[in-house]
Structure formats: structure tokens, C-alpha cells
Amino acid sequence: MTFDDFELEYDLLDGIDAMGYSNATPIQEQAIPRILNNEDLIACAQTGTGKTAAFVLPILNKIITTATKHINTLVLVPTRELAQQIDQQIDAMAYYIDVSSVAVYGGSDGITWEQQKRALKKGADIVIATPGRLIALLNMGAVDFSQLQHLVLDEADRMLDMGFSEDIERIVSELPKQRQTLLFSATMPPKIRTLAGKILHNPYQINIAISKPAEGIVQQVYLTHDQQKDSLLKGILKSGQYKSIIIFAGTKEKVKQVFAMLQKSRIASKAFHSDLKQEEREQIMQQFKNGSISVLVGTDVLSRGIDVTGIDLVLNYDVPPDPEDYIHRIGRTARAATTGTAITFVNEKDMYRLLNIQKMIERELPRLPLPDGLGEGPAYNPTARKTFDKHRGGKKPAARHKR
Fold this sequence. Notes:
Rossmann fold, 403 residues, seven-stranded parallel sheet
């Protein structure tokens, strides 16, 4: 289908054409008509499938065909980066129409805080917000949702994983009961079903490639000892095979260590983590998008908050603890039906995580031999966690509590 098939307003179609969009993705084909028909919706689709346009376009169309001077739509998202990303996409799609939006998120300076409050008081058409900051504004009485028509929960699974369940319920209690509610999620665990049952009314359900990486991603694994990782990484980066690269590390401390190692090796890169000021993070992201930075090192915040086309390589320096996080990480490449590569370094302690990933994606990932000169890596042993725990004296790893 083309976007002309949805019978959207001409000025909105002009904005879509200016962005270079022509054919709708599967999630857009299924979601847009339902949203235009005012149906509640649960949409489960992998990252990079065009979810944002799937809900933004029909909502923009409804706004410009309905007179309103109040906040029309609230989009809840897990991170400030995603809030900014959606705000930018709305600006682009709404270039030829009179629709306003504002991104509301924490971690900003006093000037940004005041700008957010003023935009909300003026009644921006679309508010994209992280739950924590929006709760603070609600407590101040700075938001009027009395005329709200649409509620969108984007990356709902991530919000619940981050501990926003109570905040979401509090925010929903402040909204009109008569509204259209849209829930978008990359995965659909039971807790999402429970939330949907509380806030949606007879929703239409869409399921597209649940918990599966995009077909265009070439996935590869190196079995490597920790002391071999830096040399292996430097060899991959210096090969010249990849032009735009994201490296994921497990913690911000590890991000800093990897970044320092790359700097010492004279490999141009930037580190992206929560210790940076918001202005610094925005500047780094802009530099990465325009290609002036080719290597970005970050934590899982990048797996949800970045939408950059043309990323050649996603490299997991550490295996993520949750298979779902693996899906989101590697989903940064091969976006919009392109191709890309995902490489994961697996040490002896993380082989059970690799096993869990392979179970989820229902395939065994190819294991590449280490380059000459690095020595032998650990033998493939998916039960390595038990062996490692026994070596530690039978102590089990600390439980992974959800906040």
C-alpha cells in the first residue's frame, strides 16, 4: 500500500512525500486504518518497523480535521532520547500543517523546564513525555488533560521494565475515560496484557514478528575471554569494513573503559552514558546522525532511544542479561528494510545468556573463529554458568530484581 491509499489530508501527504516515504510498512498498513476508525489498539512489532509513523500519521490527520485548542494527544515513552526522537519525527511529518508538539523529559536545565511548562500551558497539540517528569508537572497542576483525545504508550514493555507501572496508572487516572488508547510494544509479556486490560477498551490486536530480529541483520558470535575483547574489537574497527558503528557495553563504567581504550588506540569515538549533561548527549547524537562521529559506545539506553538509518554494525561488547535487550540492541541496524551486521562477544560466564537468546530467536548463531594472534577462546559450553557458580563455591548470582 502507498500512503495515498489511506486517504489522508493533502497537506499531511506533502510532508510524507518530503520525507521520502512512499510505501507503508506492514505495521502501518494494519494500524493506520484502525486508528483512523477510532479503535483502541495493541500493536506488537519489532523495532525498526515504522511504529512511530503508524500512530503519528493518523493522529495528525485527525487533529487537522478537528478544531481544538487543548492538548489532544499524550505519548508516553520510557526515555528522553525516544521523546526527542518522536518529537523530531512529528515536526518533520507535520511540516506543512499547523500542529504543535512538545517533548517533556527530566534531566534538563531550568530553562528547558520552563519551556516545557509554557508549552503545556499553551496547549500543545501533542505531548511526548517520560512518566517521571510528567508526574512532577501533574503534581504542580501544570497540565490540563481534560480535552485529551488520544493516549499512546510507546515501548510499553520497556516502561514497565523500568518500574513505571504505578506512574502510568497515576497518569491514566488523570485522563478522560472517553479517549482512544494505543499501546505499542516490541514484546508482549503477561504484564503488558494486564496493563492493556486496565486501560484499553476492546482493542484490536496486531502482531508482527514478535521478538525476532529483522531478516536483514547478519548475526555473528565470537567466543572470547575478557582479556581478548579489546584486541578483537580494535581489529574489527580498524578493518574498515564498517562506517557507522554502535558498541553496547553492560554498564556506564564499562562504556567509559571501552571509550578510553579506543581513544588510547586512536580510534575516533564518543561515549554515551547517563553521567553526561543533556546538552552533551544531544550534541553527540546529532554528530552521530550526521556522520561526523562514526563509532558510538553506550549502554542499553541507546537500544531504545536512537533512530539512525545506515548503521552498519552493532557490536555487543557484553552480552545483555535479557534476550529482549539483545533484540532491541541489534535492531539499531538493518532498519527500514536495509541490511546490517550484529556481532556479540561471549565470554565463558555469559554462554547461558547466548543460549537464552538462541532459544528466543529459534536459531543457533554462527560462531566465528578468533583472528590469528589472539589465541584460543573459551570452548562453547551453554552450561558454563553452573560451572562458574560451582567455582565460586556454589554461590548463586544475586537475584535480578525489577524496579
